[in-house]
Amino acid sequence: MAEVVTGPKLRLFPEEVAEIRRRLGREPNPVEWRVFEAMWSEHCSYKHSRPYLRVLPGEGPGVLRGPGGNAGVVEIAPGVAVAMKIESHNHPSAVDPFHGAATGVGGILRDVLSMGARPTALLDSLRFGEGPRSRRLLEGVVAGIAHYGNAVGVPVVGGEVHIEPCYTQHPLVNVCCVGILRSRDVRGAAAGGPGNVVLYAGARTGRDGIGGAAFASEELDAESALRDRSAVQIGDPLAGKLLIEATLEAYRTGAVVAVQDMGAAGLACAAAEMSARGGVGMRIDLAQIPRREAGMRPEEVLLSESQERMLLVVERGREEEVAGIYRRWGLLAQPIGVVTEEKVLRVYDGDRLVVELPPELMTGAPERRVPERPYAPPPLHLETLPEPEDPAEVLLRLLRAPGVHSKRWIYTQYDHLVQINTVVGPGSDAAVLRIKEASPLGIALSVDGPGRIASLDPWCGGAWAVCEAALNVACSGARPVAVTDGLNLASPEQPEVAWSLRRVLEGIADACRALGLPVIGGNVSLYNESTDRIYPTPIVAVLGVLRDVARAVPSGFRHPGDRVVLVGALGASLAGSTYLKEVHGLVAGAPPAPDLGLHARLVGLLVRAAEEGLVRSAHDLSDGGLGVALAEACILGEIGAGCDLSLQRTRVDELLFGEGPSRVVVTVPGDRYETFCALCREHRVPVQPLGRVGGDTLRIRLPRGGLEIGVSDLREAWEG
Amino acid sequence: MRFGVVTFPGSNCDADCRWVLREVMGFETESVWHEETDLAGLDAVVLPGGFSYGDYLRAGAIAATSPVMLAVRAFAARGGLVLGVCNGFQILLETGLLPGAMLPNLGARFRCEWVRVRVERTDTPFTSRYRPGEVLRMPIAHREGRYYADPATLERLEAAGCVVFRYEGENPNGSLHGIAGIRDETGNVLGLMPHPERCAEGILGGEDGRRLFESMADWIRTKRREAVWQRS
Questions:
Q1: A263 band by pLDDT with thresholds 50, 70 and 90
Q2: What is the C-alpha separation between A636 and B189, in angstroms, rounded?
Q3: Which band of pLDDT confidence, cut at 50, 70 and 90, is reported for residue A531?
Q4: pLDDT per residue over B3-36, tens digit each?
Q5: How high is the ipTM of this complex?
Q6: Under 8 Å CB-to-CB from B141, ≥6 apart: which residues?
Q7: Given CB 3.0 to 4.6 Å as the disulfide criterion, which of A404, A448, A566, B48 pairs with A469?
Q8: What span, in angstroms and rounded, lies between the C-alpha atoms of B35 and B58?
Q9: What integer pLDDT is reported at residue A532 of this predicted model?
Q10: End-to-end CA gap in chain B
Q11: Which of B34, B62, B110 best tests the A interface by mutation, with the highest count of A CBs <10 A?
Q12: Between chains, do A150 and B110 touch, taking CB under 8 Å as contact?
């Protein structure tokens, strides 16, 4: 994509170079070109995705801050709000899994912090390839997340991992952070008040991460691991922890006007975005910036992505009060400039003016329209596939499949209990946290990203992502209230990818509208391709609210004699299923489109049933379909169940392992069954009784024969 | 009755300990900054979990040299109750208030999970509310929790009855003698790796940690009554 301008190669399109010259009315100097290269990268400017992102519903009741800020904020009860955002760190993690993932955690924590919230929980969504190299990358990423998250004291309460060959060169590392705050404490990142002081706080500036934003907007190649090592930042979780505490304390002075993390494109981006949002300018002196090394050039200081640094705008005359807080926490704090009325960002290096640009131009990369080409999924010819002879063996095999298999080895490395809010931790459909300040209120969180489905039908993948995450949250008894989305795709300059980006977003938007969920923020990571192209991978995190956290519903079966019931869509499909991939090595077929109206009613039903105490457990059917869901509910509850599917007329593999949205297995106490069924009728949600909880085996009668497996054998396959 | 919870740079369970002591137990509780040198007015000091000073060098090593630890040493010598949880335990070892050291877990991974812990003694200021031999469910969360001491020290610890908590069943980190928590020979300093503050409320999955704080309160009340008697 890149074009030569002058000197070293600039990563800008020729028409962008012309546009910059035209709008500026002069030739930018070399430092300014570097700033444009970073600010107009896809990573900072969303130039390819912005036209499509408009379809997302960003408004809704309770939304205090929508998309466009550092994180979204939604009010969940009078006076109580949640900030949340998902962010990718895919490119850095491919080159250096440990530090790439660790700094991904640090960055997203500070985005939530900058909204005025204390970071309260993290969720991670990971995608890796197969084979030993991918396994090492995964272990490095998990260690990096643990290293940073554990030390800063923010629990990783949930997440998901999927293994597919398309992620071998391009692992995905998406981290979602959630923070709690009082509604009246919500903050913005708009600079204001000419004469106010620009304060630099945190760690020193070094040469790490230079060009990171532009690097993240390129395809990786074989030499990336060596050449791009300097584009990966190194994190210091101690400084990250101190920055959280000091910044929360600084807010309490009332002197902080605006805050932003110096993340992608560093100081240049933070100063430009804060100025542009506030309709002001800034005068900044680079000579005042605390540095880790001597001899840094102005563009290096401006674009460094050294970690644990924040830029604040502080009321004039109170800068020493705020700086004193940071220093007490052992951090640097240094006034580096002032806010100006004139809408120009002037950066000096001592006496020398090195950058003089309007913030609006810096943040105003024009949208790029690219050609699209639709595609259809490879057809699935079910009639050519034999039905399994031994369904029990297939079920055990699916429990061992990487997408289904227990993630215990991962989440025990994360401190998921610190801050003592975790009511339901990792390993369940959704994580559930109490909110100490607003007892008995609770929140539920889930993250989901069906890449394989999106590769077959991008609209369907986008809609499924929202539906599944919302359903997970509803299974726990929480009412879904808001969404943050992370889009991970290959190069948008490929017409098929551009089309899939549009369709994925339309799927997310349609599902969000049907469920009444605002998308309060998100992230786009493009160019995840080299020789391989990743699946379009929409990753969606849903926030839900529980009026009484003590009523949270678990995923596992609990009580002998309870009725086992399937609610929601009764049919399922093998298209794009885990079974098809694991047993037949196929990724094919048109996945079933969600019935969004039914899905919304199902979500409403689950929330009501939980509030009225009608269900004792609820588990969403996902990878591996009904068979795997029943097995997981037995394993989690350490109790068996007997189910009768002998009257079903579908193929046994479709019956047991077919997948589709809007399906949940619930258990209902016998004496509440009629009430529950009446509630289902009221919500117009189909119900199918399956059997009862009890015994120490999972027993399923099938149209021909059946299966019986001990719960301990299920556990052995799932966790062993 | 006043509890103090120390905040070192990098402590991350200090707020949790304050919450439990103040809101759950109802004790008067204050924050103690790591540069504090005066602990007058406190009945008990808690060194919370976390990664003090990033655990750079060794877990707890830098915190052990901070000004507040001089004050904690004097406080312990006067008979004040000192409780070190997780990183706080590591700091007590690095300070020498308790014997031994912590090594990285066998398996070298951070482990966060619920474990079973047996109460070895109930005649201590921290465990009087438990039954002898009672097995508790408590969460651990650490990467360096393998208790180590030389054979002579271990023998002395066992002979003097200083082992207060031992892992029951699986030993999650390879600690010698399955040690999860020890006290000093005078009895008023306790360090343990499991987190009692994470299991003091039923909504979080268990309440076994609560009685540790109740035991401390009992002991403080008893001491106060004795002091009043001695004065009169």
A1: confident
A2: 39
A3: confident
A4: 999 999 999 999 999 999 999 999 999 999 999 9
A5: 0.96
A6: A150, A415, A417, A418, B49, B86, B110, B111, B112, B195, B198
A7: A448
A8: 20
A9: 85
A10: 21
A11: B110
A12: yes
Residue A505's nearest CA partner among A516, A519, A490 is A519
pLDDT band at A232 (very low <50, low <70, confident <90, very high): low
Name the residue with tokens 């799932």.
A718
Q: Do A413 and B111 touch (CB under 8 A)?
A: yes
Q: Say how far apart CA A277 and CA B28 lie, in whole Å.
A: 45
* Distance separating alpha carbons of residues B65 and B57, to the nearest angstrom: 12
**For residue A379, is the peptide bond before it cis, meaning its omega torsion is within 30 degrees of 0?**
no
| DSSP calls for A387-413 | PPS-HHHHHHHHHHSTTTS--HHHHTT
Partner residues linked to B44 by β-bridges: B3, B81
For residue A415, the distance in angstroms to the closest alpha carbon of chain B comes to 5
* Structure token pair of residue A61: 């009741």
Contact, A145 vs A414, CB < 8 A?
Answer: yes
Q: To the nearest whole percent, how much of chain B has pLDDT over 90?
A: 91
Own/partner contacts of A381-390, CB < 8 Å, gap of 24 or more, are A382/A574, A382/A651, A382/A654, A385/A584, A385/A653, A387/A651, A387/A652, A387/A653, A388/A583, A388/A652, A388/A653
Q: Closest Cα partner for A554 from A661, A365, A424, A718? A: A424
Is the pLDDT at A5 greater than 50? The verdict is no
Q: Please report where in the chains the tokens 């298209």 appear, as a residue.
A: A575
Interface test with A, best of B5, B8, B11, B12 (most A CBs within 10 A): B12
In this complex, is the C-beta atom of B107 within 8 Å of any C-beta atom belonging to chain A?
no
Question: What is the pTM assigned to this prediction?
Answer: 0.95
